[in-house]
């Protein structure tokens, strides 16, 4: 394999019913860094029935080239149709690196591409860089529930591929007046080659208020909250800050708060401006989802709780005293009392 | 209904600790368990068998000690178990692992339904199961909530971020299970006793003559671990003095304001 034939960093801008997901834009930010380090172009791949929003987003978030595959068979994700379209693009343009969001469908697509292209795929990367001497991407990812981190290389084959969880990186700044090169490819997947067909879709109940992955302020509660009723004070604090409430798995498992609010390895990855952990011990699985936050504040009765190891500000105290006090302080400063 | 379930033995990651002096993973004494999501996969298989008849086979690739996990699967109600083990399989990444498991499934099959977990809690990639489907060239649906069989096809509920898709697919199909799929049953005492006597056959490289040996083990793995490290968590946490809650809160917000955070 002549690795030099493989050029450019591709980002899959995944859309759902025509709406691009943020993770694609977050990856365009990371892709730009890799592309610049490799002195190659940053390309977005948009596949769908409706592609306009995806193209608009890929333009604003900095793609140099946008590959577009449009067709009715791409209205819903299927491994077969999306995989076929993506593989056709790869066969024609030979990308060097492919970044995919670690969504349910992104993970599926990633594994399909990796097997068909006989190449390596590193899942759930939390940091990406380029090894200067070789031009290999260094894929950094947690293992053993975040107890260990590994740097992984795919040095013999191309493209080198990785998935990244939504929220693991921030979206880059939007830029104006960009004119990326648009390449539309007329690729169609045969009906009989699509083995799975979506026949109905039931939309999840939308969370009221600010979405966890998009929130700039998150007030998270753990087992220390003792019961579901006490999440009300976290909600009040979050509302005052213009943010939302999150949780540890312990409080989700206890049924105090829905699973959609869980932060961590098996929940969501978040990177807000401020993360306030209330009554959360800081198990590695929880840390795996929130250490990228800009500022972490921890409130815990136990001074030895590991959450203090990742916090910027620590308060060894009782959440039932501290949270109401914080609410009062904000209210006073905002003249709400 | 012929069903196969891929189960992996994993260290209980909640029990892993870091040696504070050497900064390495302490694995001694860490219990090995059946990957939690694979238990959901097995439960789904057992329910399919109860509903449609047939047999449930479990396979696991790993060292001899992974037989404990296979025995657990038998005690829950699986009919047959195989350990996939060979020195040449060591060091396999998801590409190589999925290839080996696909070859084993071809040998033991044909199967109508292949089940695996959403991800393994040690490696955490979630790639192995869908990759098996790709090697086999069959349909796959990840993160399923339920499976209904109708003749030569199935209707599957699949969870994605936006909601639940109802998907129709041809058999054979590979599905992955999550915590939301079902609640795994407990083994019965009789099941436990029977599983102790059960024969668990080994499947080695010699049993898989059409295997392309360039695709297995460390040499067949496109990805390589360059280095590992334990996250450095040297605390730079500023501890706030507790005078009284209001005073501490005021101090906190003062600091946040000074640092232009709030
Ligand atoms: C495969 C796997 C995946 C997992 N994924 C996740 C995940 O995604 N997210 C996640 O969060 N966890 C996850 N976990 C679980 C994780 O290991 C921990 O069990 C969990 O995070 C603990 O939640 P907690 O901190 O709320 O509870 P605990 O660990 O019980 O901590 C409660 C804390 O509250 C403090 N406290 C008690 N009362 C008060 C009070 N009045 N005021 C102040 N502090 C108080 C205590 O000192 C303690 O530190 C996972 C585990 C496994 C095995
Ligand atoms: N060594 C193995 N033996 C059997 N099944 C495995 C093995 N590794 C992975 N699997 C299956 O693939 C799923 C996903 O694993 P992973 O890709 O490692 O996260 C697991 O839940 C298992 O069902």
Describe the structure.
The complex is a heterodimer of chains A (337) and B (262). Helix content of chain A is 28%, strand content 26%. Chain A has 337 residues and is of the alpha/beta class. In chain A, the strands form 4 sheets. Chain A has a 7-stranded parallel sheet with strand order 7-11-6-1-4-5-12, sandwiched between helices. In chain A, helix 3 packs across helix 4 (104-116) and helix 5 packs parallel to helix 9 (319-333). Chain A is globular and about 65 Å long. Chain B has one domain (2-215): HUPs (Rossmann fold), CATH 3.40.50. Chain B is built from 6 helices and 15 strands. In chain B, the strands form 3 sheets. Chain B has a 9-stranded mixed sheet with strand order 11-10-9-12-8-1-6-7-13, sandwiched between helices. A two-stranded antiparallel ribbon of chain B has the order 2-5. In chain B, strand 6 (55-61), helix 2 (67-76) and strand 7 (80-84) form a beta-alpha-beta unit. In chain B, helix 2 (67-76) crosses helix 5 and helix 3 crosses helix 4. The relative contact order of chain B is 0.17. Chains A and B meet through helix 4, strand 7, strand 9, strand 10 and strand 13 of A and strand 3, helix 3, helix 4, strand 9 and strand 10 of B. Bound molecules: flavin-adenine dinucleotide (FAD) and adenosine monophosphate (AMP). The site of adenosine monophosphate has 24 residues of chain B, from helix 1, strand 6, helix 3, strand 8 and helix 4.
């Amino acid at each position: 394999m002549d690795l030099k034939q493989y050029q450019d960093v591709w980002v899959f801008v995944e859309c759902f019913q025509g709406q691009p997901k943020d993770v694609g834009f977050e990856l365009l930010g990371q892709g730009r860094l890799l592309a610049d380090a490799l002195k190659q172009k940053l390309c977005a791949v948009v596949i769908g029935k409706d592609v306009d929003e995806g193209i608009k987003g890929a333009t604003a978030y900095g793609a140099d080239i946008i590959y577009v595959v449009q067709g009715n068979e791409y209205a819903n994700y299927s491994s077969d149709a999306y995989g076929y379209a993506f593989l056709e693009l790869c066969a024609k343009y030979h990308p060097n690196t492919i970044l995919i969001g670690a969504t349910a469908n992104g993970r599926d697509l990633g594994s399909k591409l990796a097997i068909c292209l006989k190449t390596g795929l590193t899942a759930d990367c939390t940091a990406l860089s380029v090894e200067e001497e070789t031009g290999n991407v260094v894929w950094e990812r947690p293992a053993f529930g975040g107890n260990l981190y590994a740097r992984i290389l795919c040095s013999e084959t191309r493209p080198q591929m990785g998935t990244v969880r939504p929220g693991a990186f921030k979206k880059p700044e939007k830029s104006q007046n960009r004119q990326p090169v648009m390449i539309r490819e007329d690729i169609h997947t045969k009906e009989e080659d699509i083995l799975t067909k979506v026949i109905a879709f039931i939309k999840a109940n939308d969370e009221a208020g600010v979405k966890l992955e998009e929130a700039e302020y998150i007030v998270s509660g753990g087992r220390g909250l003792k019961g579901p009723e006490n999440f009300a004070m976290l909600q009040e604090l979050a509302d005052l800050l213009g943010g939302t409430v999150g949780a540890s798995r312990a409080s989700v498992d206890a049924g105090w708060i829905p699973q959609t609010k869980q932060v961590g390895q098996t929940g969501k990855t978040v990177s807000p401006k401020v993360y306030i952990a209330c009554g959360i011990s800081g198990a590695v699985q929880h840390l795996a989802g929130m250490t990228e936050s800009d500022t972490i504040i921890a409130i815990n009765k136990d001074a030895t709780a590991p959450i203090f190891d990742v916090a910027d500000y620590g308060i060894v105290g009782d959440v039932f005293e501290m949270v109401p006090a914080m609410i009062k302080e904000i209210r006073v400063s905002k003249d709400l009392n | 209904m012929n069903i196969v379930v891929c189960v992996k033995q994993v260290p209980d990651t909640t029990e892993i600790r870091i040696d504070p002096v050497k900064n390495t993973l302490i694995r001694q004494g860490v219990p090995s368990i059946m990957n939690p999501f694979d238990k959901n996969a097995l439960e789904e298989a057992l329910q399919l068998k109860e509903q449609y008849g047939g047999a449930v086979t479990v396979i696991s690739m790993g060292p001899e000690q992974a037989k404990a996990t296979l025995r657990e699967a038998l005690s829950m109600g699986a009919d047959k178990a195989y350990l996939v083990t060979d020195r040449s399989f060591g060091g396999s990444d998801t590409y190589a692992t999925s290839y080996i498991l696909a070859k084993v499934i071809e040998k033991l099959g044909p199967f109508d339904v292949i089940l695996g977990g959403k991800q393994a809690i040690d490696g955490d990639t979630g790639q192995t199961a869908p990759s098996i489907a790709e090697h086999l060239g069959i349909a796959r649906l990840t993160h399923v909530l339920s499976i209904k069989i109708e003749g030569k096809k199935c209707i599957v509920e699949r969870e994605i971020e936006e909601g639940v898709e109802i998907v129709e697919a041809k058999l054979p199909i590979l599905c992955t299970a999550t915590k939301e799929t079902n609640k795994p049953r407990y083994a019965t005492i009789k099941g436990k006793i029977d599983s102790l006597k059960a024969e668990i056959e080994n499947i080695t490289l010699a049993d898989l003559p059409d295997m392309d040996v360039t695709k297995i083990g460390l040499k067949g793995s496109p990805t390589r671990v360059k280095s590992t490290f334990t996250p450095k968590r040297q605390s730079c946490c500023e501890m706030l003095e507790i005078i009284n809650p209001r005073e501490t809160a005021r101090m906190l917000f003062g600091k946040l304001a000074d640092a232009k955070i709030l």
